[in-house]
């Protein structure tokens, strides 16, 4: 029999066997098709969403030939690269022309003869919405021009046809509650506009803006401001020009050089797509930075992902082929009796892998393409930009399909080798024989695991991420080698358990060839998930620690913009109660100062007073990480010791200046007990009583000595400050007062913006001046867009002298989504692997289940046995994966710690806090919820009744 004839027969046998065992075949095809589907969809999505140079040009200039813009230096010549990424003025060069002038740049003199252009200019403005008022961008651009197709597209309605019409982006309409046909009014000039249509920018779907024809907004606004001093004039950006060159000629490099001589920068489609030689580019002689394209890192990541996908498929599909080979062993034995040798027996099993691999690859590629087309709008919304076109690269798709085919063959390789070694007599009688487990493999696995962990830890200590990655992979391979022994030990744990869990553990131990690969697949998926989740959680905790808040969490502030607008706070407070989710008591604060107010008379030198809270010297008062000797001290500190110093009140005081409201360099405010409970979060009756008695509350103990603080005031008065000058005549004077204070616990030293709370009566007694400044509210959630727009409307009605400040935290919802996606991915793999193993166990143990029914086992035993078999695989894989995933995460954090410590020794006040935070929610979901769900699903879908059949043999 020739080679081709033998393989043709093997493929025919494999195809018929696959059709006979449709359930098992569908399972293997699905396992191969799913990763192929994912990789195909990812490849097509990546290629389609990655803009080409031509698509990037269209996003900026539409169908025009070029964009002309000012360099910002008037008619001063410039030199640029062909793609306008780098440029500079040439006034400091000997070749600079004598007629260089800072006069405004015009466009007509810079254009080639026969060229036409559109003007574009934007301005920040406040407009009315359904909820109130919002700040937005208004762009004057003739959106109906054909030259803008590809950059701006009409979604609904019509383009503006008159000066009182605009179009809005869909993002603007969604956030403001307006729609096509709504009216919006430009605050200031009070000019109303009708929204005639909604548009989108294919390259920026989330943009929030209004578009009007040139001359419809800025010119009327300027005219209204000229006639009414109460209207603030517009502050438009520099004008841009979208240029169409002479018919068929475009904008050439010579035209770009001519525009450069007039002070204009040019981005030309023709020049970028067909750049001139460096000899014709004056700026080409200048060095340009090389930031790298990250292609090496991207390639390594792609190879790693593909390798992990292949490993997952082989681990999951391999047992299915092994079970199929065992169920077909009589057929394979007959092949041997007819003269077939071992290579032909192996060929039949390998052909099964090739048949199912090809089917899975074709199905995966087709499904990936179809799903990408179906979910294209969803993907575009998630990425924030439209695909230029659906780009399918045939060779890449073919390579993905080949990987699926090869994966199927690799999954069948080990079962094929085992089947080829099976004696013909055992194959015909159905006896499996007995093989002892290797005693060397687990020892080797333990050695490899220990070595991999050591390498990863060493890499983390030395800062070598390559060693971290390599050591982690080696450690995981070592654990894989130990899995058969670990599975074998499971059988000894069920001696005292009820029937179903005891049988599940013993079945897993007895059939290690089926159980171990599934456990390994779960472990591999969970290890990667736990590693990324642990690292991400740790980085999030580090960012939260380093974040300097502008307000205490759960608060919002109404702040007066100037002393003249303090009287508007009353109406703003009422609006806050009506429009915000206020959940607690309001706290009002007042500014306090000595002499003339620096906030009013800042322009004159020595024209205002100062108020200073003097910090004592010595241990516990001065931060040792500042000043002379700080770097020497930092060199001998551990990360823990540095963190402890950074947490002391003396050092945390350096960050108190970051606050949503200004309290001067002293950070002293005038307030009452409501400020303690609503903002400081200090619920202490003694502190409230102290304020009521006129005793200040000090939030930073570093400023106190023996329960007292030193307050130094320089009472200097500006000649124009006649009101305060009459109250305090005479020469400037300096007062130093020792005040008894209530010292709050050290943890309140980090309260944003406040170092000490001073009672108003005490401020008056000391000759200080006070003025209401802001109101602080406890809120149930951060104000939404609608709530902020309602507040903006209330501020406008009150006089636009008050603004709203909200607390912003370091947490990012992107990281939370990443952790959720990782948990879902690992959960799906875990459930899939456990279900596959349970299904194979059911197919492999039909005779045992028949015996159970024959001896009177209750029908529920079948369901509970399937459920516990699923739990055994899922839980074992999750626990091993969690342990394996911690290694690279901890090692990478050691790398980060090394970098942080180096930076800290250069700048002692830089934080070196580099924690390792376990993602307990993710681990709990994987270790508890996923195995439980897998077991319940297996129990529900397992049949409880078994048809009795006569056992053979």
Automatic annotation (TrEMBL):
**Among its keywords, does the record have Repressor?**
no
Topology with respect to the bilayer: Multi-pass membrane protein
One Pfam annotation reads FtsX
The source's domain of life comes to: Bacteria
Keyword tags? Cell membrane, Membrane, Transmembrane, Transmembrane helix
Q: Which PANTHER family does the UniProt entry name for this protein?
A: ABC TRANSPORTER PERMEASE YTRF (PTHR30572:SF4), MEMBRANE COMPONENT OF TRANSPORTER-RELATED (PTHR30572)
- Family as reported in the entry's similarity comment: Belongs to the ABC-4 integral membrane protein family.
Instruction: Return the InterPro entries for the record.
Output: ABC3_permease_C, Macrolide_Exporter_MacB
Annotated transmembrane regions: 298-324, 345-375, 395-419, 440-461, 473-495, 516-535, 817-836, 870-891, 923-943
Identification of the protein by name:
FtsX-like permease family protein
- Annotated ABC3 transporter permease C-terminal domain ranges read 306-422
Provide the protein's localization. Answer: Cell membrane
